[in-house]
Amino acid sequence: MFTMKLRKVSAAAATALVLALTATACGGDDGGDSNGSGSGGGDKIKIGIKYDQPGLGLKEPDGSFSGFDVDVATYVAKELGYEPNQIEWVETKSADRENALARGDVKMIAATYSITDERKQKVDFAGPYLLAHQDLLVKKDSDITKGTDLNGKKLCSVVGSTSAQNVADKIAPKAQLSERGGYSECLAALQNGQVDALTTDDSILAGYAAQDQYKGQFKLAGLKLSNENYGIGVKKGDTATVDKINKALEKMVSDDSWQKAVDKNFGPANYKNEQAPKIGQIVK
């Protein structure tokens, strides 16, 4: 009798163990949706940024990240319920931003992402959170002082960016376009004389010009060739996230965190920023 009872207890214990293991396997990890569809807690959120833009989105040698876009995205993520250690930063190059959102690789992108009508067909935007202007970065002794001086010159920009095409279409149709995979590659080409100018937004160029290893080598031409309204991109149709991000951006401006981030990241380059744009107000 005692032996039979012992066998029953052992069988019950074994069954309980199997059920516990099964529940653990079905429950998965505590991380939740790594793309950030949750509301914080144990979840993580993937945010697309640039890795090679000093002052905006830069991966430091120690593996940390710095820049204005990083600070804005960190603030927004906090308002969405995510602590800094719950953010997974994902490199998103200009040519792959729309695809990264469509594939669900990231929840949102803050990567000097100018809001354009063409891009709005593929993604939704929150913001804008910064108004920048297209400019030129040239060597300190360059004789390029205006856009038309680029005719016959070699002009560098990155694949997927609209900047070089803007110049070729509207300002210097005889400029020789030279595309590279990233801005750091364009900067190297400018430094060694393979190209005559690098064009993109003044905020990006100011970040490069302010780096210690390049101080005194380059200058901004000081041209306002276009208006670039930086927005935070999200997957097309995700209006709920757009609304949440817009509220976070409004709060960032009102509590002065926005201006502090501008001063911190662009101040060393003596960058003259525009005032914080109003949400939904696109400057053409």
UniProtKB/TrEMBL annotation:
Belongs to the bacterial solute-binding protein 3 family. Keywords: Signal, Transport. Pfam families: SBP_bac_3. This is Glutamate-binding protein. Residues 1-25 form the signal peptide. Gene3D superfamilies: Periplasmic binding protein-like II (3.40.190.10). PANTHER family: ABC TRANSPORTER GLUTAMINE-BINDING PROTEIN GLNH (PTHR30085:SF6), AMINO ACID ABC TRANSPORTER PERMEASE (PTHR30085). One of its GO terms (biological process) is amino acid transport. Residues 44-269 form the Solute-binding protein family 3/N-terminal domain. Transmembrane segments: none annotated. It comes from Streptomyces azureus. It comes from the Bacteria. CDD domains: PBP2_GluB. InterPro entries: Bact_solute-bind_prot3, SBP_3_CS, Solute-binding_3/MltF_N. One of its GO terms (cellular component) is extracellular region.
